[in-house]
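User: Can you help me understand a structure? I only have the sequence.
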Amino acid sequence: MIAYTLQKIKPNRSPEIELFTGKDLRRPEVFSRLYRQYYDDIFRYCVHRLFNRHIAEDVTSDVFFKAVEKIDSFNGTRIQFRNWLYKIATNCINDHLRRKVRREAAIKAVSETSTVKTTEDDCSIDDEKNKRQRLLKQAIYELKPKYQTIITLRFFENLKLTEIAEILSSKEGTVRSRLARALKQLKKKLAPIWKEV
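Assistant: Let's start by predicting it. Here is the structure, written out as tokens:
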């Protein structure tokens, strides 16, 4: 793995304030440290967007490969680096989903997913829970990618609106309104279905 070291503004500042540039990040010990720190976050985000661990592993690899390719364009703090990785991940995921055949296959796979029951007592509870989870995944997957991104970053990654705005290069108000629209669409998709469950 490629790694790099960090150049600190002041010796006693918190790690989030550490500044580094593309030149710093070309140093293997720095990049590998940041890779280890943020790999799980980026992988989890990819899993939440794609609902498939194997595809998420591939996309996560693409994210870090692209980060290495574009490393010279980055200047900022550790938090800005994390947000930059989320932005790259969002673009990689959206590129993957743009291919209509893949998207339709993924929607079909999510809707056909079933889980194995553990005990007879838990069957009805597990069936209902699994059905609701499957319907929620399918409803999220049917949203436009820009709405999927905001829902995932806000509710699965627990990021603040300001962080999401930075990741998406948008204003906080834009993110807030897109989030509201996404939730409205989800509610519209799920309301009639969830009454049946």
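Now, to help you interpret it: Residues 1-14, 114-118 have pLDDT under 50 and may be disordered. Strands lie at 19-21, 75-77. Let me know which part you'd like to focus on.
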